[in-house]
Structure formats: C-alpha cells, structure tokens
Amino acid sequence: MTNIIIAGAVGLILSMLGTPLAIRLFSRRGYGQEIREEGPSGHHGKRGTPTMGGTVIVLASLLAYGASHLATLEPVTASGLLVLFLMTGLGAVGFLDDFIKIYKQRSLGLRSGAKALGQLIVGAIFAVLVTQQPNIYQITPADTRLSFLRDFGPSIGIVGFTVWVLIMIVGFSNAVNLTDGLDGLASGATGVVLAAYVLIGNWQLRNNCIDQLGPNCYWVRDPLDLAVVAAAVLGALIGFLWWNAPPAKIFMGDTGSLALGGVLAGLAIATRTQLLLILLAGLCVVITMSVIIQVGFFKMTGKRVFRMAPLQHHFELKGWAETTIVVRFWLIAALCAALGLGLFYVEWMPK
Description:
single chain, mainly alpha, two-stranded antiparallel ribbon, globular, PNAcMuramoyl-5peptid_Trfase_CS
C-alpha cells in the first residue's frame, strides 16, 4: 500500500504545481485551442485556452511511478513499464496531433489515417511484448486469451490476440478523446476508472495464486505495480482536474485523452479484465456509441438521431448548462465504475 500512496501523492503534487507552469508557458507561446465552427456557440469563448495539458499528466505519472519505486526500493516490473509505455506512446501521437493544430491554427491536426497508424504502431508493439516477459513463475503480463473477471476460453493465438488488443487500444483511446468535449468531463470520467483499477490491482495482489492457491485466485503478473501505475496516473489526473474543471484554465488535448485511453486499455489487458472495462468505462462507451449511431443513421436515412454528437453536445444544444452536464455525466461514470467493481467482487460473495 505504501507504493500506491506515494505514487498517488507525488502524481497529485507534481500535477497540481506543474499545470499552472504549463498554463503560463503555453499561453506565452500561443499554444491555444482552436474551436470547431460547427460546435455549440458557447465554445467559441474558449478559443485560445492553452491546450496540450496532457503532457503534464503523462510526465507527472511517469515521475510519480519512479518516485514510488525509489522511495520503497522496489524494482520496476514488466507489466507496469509496458502500460506506461502504451500511455506515453499514445500521448506522443496525441502531442503531434495537438502541435499540428496549433502550428497550422486549425481545429484538425493529424490526418485520420496518420493518427490511426501511430496508434496501431504503438499498440502492436505493446500487444507483442505483453505476451512475453515471463516472471520466475512463468506468468506473462497477458495471455493470448480473452478475459472478463479473469482469462477464459481457449487461446485465440498471437495474431488474433494482437488484433483484439489493437481494437481495444484504438477504441478506448478514441473513446476518451470523444469524451473530452467539455471542461473536466474526460478527467472525471477516467479518474473513477483509474480508482477502480487501484482497488482491482490491490485485490488481485491479496488473492494471487502464488501466495494462496485457491478456486478464485488470480494468475496476474505484478498486480501491485499495476495498482501503483493506476494510482500515479490518478493522482496526476486529480491535480490536473483542479485547473481543468469548469471553467477550464487548460485543456488536456489529444495528448492527454489518447494517453488516458491507452492506460485504461493497458490496465485492463494486464489485469486480465478486458471486457470488464466496457462496464467500468461505461460513460466513454456510451458517448462513443452516440457518434457511431449518429453517423450510421445519417448515412442510411439522411436524418440525425441527436442534435449533435458526441452525446454531451446534444444536451448542450438542448439548453443544459455545461457544469450540469459535466456533473451528471461524472455521476453516470461513477455508477458505471461501481457496477463494474460490483461484478468484479461478486464471485467472492458467500454462496
């Protein structure tokens, strides 16, 4: 638990103190957000707000993880490093996207193909490495099987597993990106999922098959270190949210949203809870589905289901205040995370 507390505390402090420095630096250099013309009219007043704040989240998380291991003299693990690699790699793709937006003064950065290619390259490296690196008990960070509360079913092979991991990584990094449309929305929505993974990693540690072999034990490599990663990112995210809450002084940009989506997917894969992430991050999934429904229905009928997609903008155009939408969506995100945790613990309930 000491590792988790240190990681969360250091991430919080670094992000809380580092974000205002980033605000001043980015403002001085003119790194302001461009706003889509077709978006809600209330967003035009946000033009010029410093963006790329996700760099603070990523850097604070990495430093917090390192500080935790230095303070406790615990060695870093393959699982923790791979999840952080995924987060950092996707954050780099997002940073390039954000920088192009700023440099060319437009609301669109990387072309969709180039952005997807960057995500796929980082994801493919992670997918291959995560099935290797066995520990002394021959447990790898992930196995080539699907998982819900734990791995189940037969192996789908390295090719099938790689494809599945890429779907997860691209899907959830874009899901968080779509959720990041209102001040503080994505920060709060992903924060509750990270908190859930702190609990999941700690529970898997206390019920691992190495120390106590039993019917419900977990064959998960490095569950404590995965909880440390989740705590480090959570602490950094809370510190950033202090400045990102409505009205936001800084936006995380694609740098932050892609990185956060990546860390959620990485934690789900390494803790063997891949399908459970759909429930834990239910709000992001619903918001993504609103875009898919809107685009698909419009192509088939020429009509729209929502006034605007993603879903949060539909409620904006209905007249809801931005803070009302954000708080209500945070509550939905918390309920989704609670439902996922409840299902995770249900197999331990007395029968």
